[in-house]
Design goal:
Distance between the termini: 32 Å
Largest sheet: 6 strands, parallel
Bound molecules: nicotinamide-adenine-dinucleotide
Number of strands: 8
Strand order of the largest sheet: 1-8-5-4-2-3
CATH architecture of the largest domain: Up-down Bundle
CATH topology of the largest domain: Dehydroquinate synthase-like, alpha domain
CATH superfamily of the largest domain: Dehydroquinate synthase-like - alpha domain
Length: about 350
Amino acid sequence: MNFVYTGLPARVLFGDGTLAQARAELERLGVHRALVLSTPQQQAPAEALAQQLGDRSVGTCPLAVMHTPVAVTEQALQRVTAERVDGLVALGGGSTIGLSKALALRTDLPQLVIPTTYAGSEMTPILGETKDGVKTTLRSLEVLPEVVLYDVALTLGLPTALSGVSGLNALAHAVEALYAQDHNPIIDLFALEGIAALARALPRIATSPNDREARADALRGAWLCGACLGAVGMALHHKLCHTLGGSFDLPHAQTHAVVLPHAAAYNTSAVPQVMTKVAQALGTTGSAARGLFELARAVGAPTSLDALGMPKAGLERALGLALANPYWNPRPLEAEGLRGLLEAAWAGTAPD
Ligand code: NAD
């Protein structure tokens, strides 16, 4: 019955066309010289945003890449210093938001974050950075964005394949939040509503990417799932994805999409009631694990590690890595069970 809930401070604007309010938000934050961050792929919309911000922006910095390399952050930091930047605007997914957080950690500058994927980083005080091939993760309120501006219009251009895997990445935060060691009934509400919204929206987006109602549902779901990741600890699924992504250079969101049904299957015997709630939120009459697998199929996501380019010979190494660093999970980590999980995820076998 007793529990602890820690609310995280954030001002959130949600809607269709909210990007028009970006300049007013910078004014509110007292920012006069904002740097607009993006990946090289999103340089064009970042340039357009810098234009829109007018004399409140010093321009763009399209340097963001996956896994937030410290070398890139240091390069961007030089620009921050040289241009006397007094605020950060991140337009993009987890990679761009990672760069923004890394700069905020070093400068304490305020952040206006405008997410264009469903990864959920904007709602977390978590930053993963890479140096010399090693990724380290920290939690600090210094990296939590001050303002998050969700604009459904910006997600219409997210390719359908990326929309599906990104949404499943978000869903994984919610599933693991429900059985987290420090789970609580407040975050459970976020998690179940996040799962339901994404399960409704993602298959519709796969066939009609311009369906604004489905896009709004997915973005709201991603917000709720991101809040789950920010509020409670994660378990087997996130650790496995972290290990597989880092050791075999697998793509982030796609790895989440493949592993989630199998991690759910592994944990079902330890938390059957939680998995019943997940299945209900997914709207399936079968198991949660099977429902997650079917959802991945329905959105056209890859369903096997094989398809992501992981060599079968790597499975034993992955198992060793997963067992080397014991961490909390509702079902204890057992070599045989984990081997079965990894083999099923590699082959793309549907869980029961
Ligand atoms: P991403 O940010 O790497 O984006 C993938 C690609 O899609 C990029 O080329 C990007 O420019 C492009 N893109 C993004 N939005 C688009 C749009 N609307 N239209 C067209 N193209 C678009 O992908 P991601 O999955 O959002 O982020 C993954 C990274 O985020 C990983 O490094 C992961 O570790 C991190 N992450 C961190 C947290 C956290 O809390 N710290 C949470 C989730 C993910």
